[in-house]
Design a protein that fits this description.
By secondary structure, the chain is of the alpha/beta class. The longest helix is centred in the first third of the chain and has 19 residues. The relative contact order is 0.11. A five-stranded parallel β-sheet has the order 3-2-1-4-5, with helices on both faces. The model has no long low-confidence stretch (mean pLDDT about 95). The chain folds into three domains: about 130 residues, Rossmann fold (3-Layer(aba) Sandwich); about 100 residues, Serine Threonine Protein Phosphatase 5, Tetratricopeptide repeat (Alpha Horseshoe); about 150 residues, DNA Cyclobutane Dipyrimidine Photolyase, subunit A, domain 3, CATH 1.10.579.10. The chain has 20 helices and five strands. Bound molecules: flavin-adenine dinucleotide.
């Protein structure tokens, strides 16, 4: 057996411009790539045909093909990471381990356990920044505390950005792989899943779209946004590549990528947001949490066409346009007074691009409880939102064929009443 460096793929499923992989390949030991289907995560997924698992599976297949051309083979395991690592250090002469950093609370505790195991076996575990442009304390206020408002954060982010943050870690220059014969991949059934038939947004960067982004991004009937979120989520595309592009061609697009870094930073500094209101003054809100109404919202049957269209798009495709995400989230938390955590959990189950940091940030923003959130008295009016952003109702008609027929439900609640009720309940909650 030869000494090896293991590269552990997680949310960075690509060979090109992959920071830790690049460092690993530059090192003295041949690199053995590993991927773990983590049963701690998989066991919590309810749908046996969960499309995210299919997405990962297809990406793993592609990685395996590319790695075979380099004379190596991805070692794919299924189980709890710590137990798998105990086996890996038996199966290989591991000298070093590389992975890219992941800022979610679960990932942080998982990596700490693996770090401790490796350390007690004399193996060092190195990690690099890859998923974001700035991490941890890199963008903080002058006094060292984290920003909790987006605009000053983004100004500092832009001021700190240099070409070195956007360099491409091209592994074309360095190729030091552990030469092994091809290993078969586990079958989807071995992981406990079936293949989903959902089609995934293409990994194509459309320059014209980015150039026109500021004009079209708010109209859900148009193809005005990149639809690359699932690729950013799983690292099948590099954030550095997209920031380079946004920086040169469209400030609005760049700003959205900065929102992504911002929410990652919030999760890093305030992991309690996963379960709690960021702003504690909202802890006294008495959510109505009506289960029947929640079901109607989930199913796209509230009688509010823009809300229902959004939920049906989500249920059918695993995607929802950002403008509509804001509308449906506001509707659930304000019109129906259902706890944002219910909506967040439903999105987490359905969104292909589900990302804890952005999802939590988006939900707390809509509920008014988050960092830099919409003030509680700003309640989206679904009708005026429709007039502004879907004026010809093309998006609505695409998803609600029975609109204007007796089959379409009447509104679950009157807008004016719901608005006043939300104002009262929020106000009482804050004063409590
Ligand atoms: C309630 C709610 C929940 C959300 N949940 C998620 C989620 O789970 N995962 C997720 O990636 N995004 C989430 N978003 C943010 C946003 O809606 C999506 O990133 C966007 O719709 C993805 O489409 P796109 O790739 O075409 O985006 P584009 O408009 O092309 O934007 C480019 C990229 O910037 C990032 N981005 C854009 N808007 C935001 C934002 N508001 N916050 C953080 N990042 C952003 C995404 O990575 C996106 O791919 C949520 C927003 C709301 C209001």
């Amino acid at each position: 057996m030869t000494d090896v460096c293991i590269f552990w793929f997680r949310r960075d499923l690509r060979l090109e411009d992959n920071h830790s992989l690049f460092e690993a390949l530059k090192g003295e030991f041949p690199v053995q790539p590993v991927f773990i289907f983590d049963t701690n995560i998989l066991d919590k997924l309810e749908d046996p045909a969960d499309a995210r698992v299919t997405f990962i599976y297809h990406e793993i297949e592609q990685l395996q093909r590319k790695l075979a051309e380099k004379g190596t083979s991805l070692d794919v395991r299924i189980g709890q990471p710590l137990s798998i690592w105990k086996k890996l250090i038996d199966d290989y002469r591991v000298k070093l381990v590389y992975a890219n950093r992941d800022y979610e609370p679960y990932a942080r505790s998982r990596d700490k356990e693996v770090y401790d195991l490796l350390k007690s076996n004399g193996i060092s575990f190195k990690s690099k920044k890859d998923h974001v442009i700035f991490e941890k304390e890199e963008v903080v206020k002058e006094n060292g505390t984290p920003y909790t408002v987006y605009t000053p954060y983004s100004k500092k982010w832009k001021a700190l950005l240099t070409e070195s943050h956007l360099r491409s870690f091209s592994s074309g220059e360095v190729q030091n792989w552990n030469q092994t014969s091809p290993r078969p991949l586990p079958l989807p059934g071995d992981i406990g899943f079936t293949i989903s038939t959902i089609s995934f947004p293409k990994k194509e960067v459309n320059i014209d779209l980015i150039n026109n982004y500021h004009e079209k991004r708010d109209y859900p009937a148009l193809q005005g946004t990149s639809r690359l979120s699932v690729h950013l989520r799983f690292g099948t595309i590099s954030i550095r590549q997209l920031v380079q592009l946004g920086k040169g061609s469209n400030e609005k697009y760049l700003n959205e990528l900065i929102w992504r870094d911002f929410y990652q930073a919030i999760l890093w500094h305030f992991p309690r947001v996963v379960d709690e209101n960021f702003q504690r003054k909202y802890d006294g809100i008495e959510w109505r949490n009506n289960e029947e109404e929640f079901k109607k919202w989930c199913d796209g049957k509230t009688g509010y066409p823009i809300v229902d269209a959004g939920m049906r798009e989500l249920n059918t495709t695993g995607f929802m346009h950002n403008r509509v995400r804001m509308i449906v989230a506001s509707f659930l938390t304000k019109h129906l007074l259902i706890d944002w955590r219910w909506g967040e959990a439903y999105f987490a189950e359905k969104l292909l691009d589900f990302e804890l940091a952005s999802n939590n940030g988006g939900w707390q923003w809509a509920a008014g409880t988050g960092v830099d959130a919409a003030p509680y008295f700003r309640i989206f009016n679904p009708y005026t939102q429709t007039e502004k952003f879907d004026p010809k109702q093309q998006y609505i008609h695409r998803w609600i064929p029975e609109l204007n027929t007796p089959d379409y439900p009447t509104p679950i609640v009157d807008h004016k009443l719901a608005r006043q009720r939300a104002l009262d309940v929020y106000k009482t909650g804050i004063d409590r």
